[in-house]
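Sequence only, no structure available. Ideas?
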Amino acid sequence: MKEFDYTKAMAELEEIALKVEDPRTGVEDIEKYMKRSQELMEACRNYLRGAREKLDAMSS
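Reply:
I predicted one. Tokens follow.
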């Protein structure tokens, strides 16, 4: 399993935002980008949740 890269995920989310805001982007592409952004946001949340749990465990 490939290790999650938070920085790359955030960069991809920024790219998706630019594409969605581009008036030349078709509706079918926007749907695809929105689905991918939801996947990335969930992965980022899980990563941050795990990091917070590790920090909490270290400070206990």
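The chain has one domain: 6-59.
Hope that gets you unstuck.
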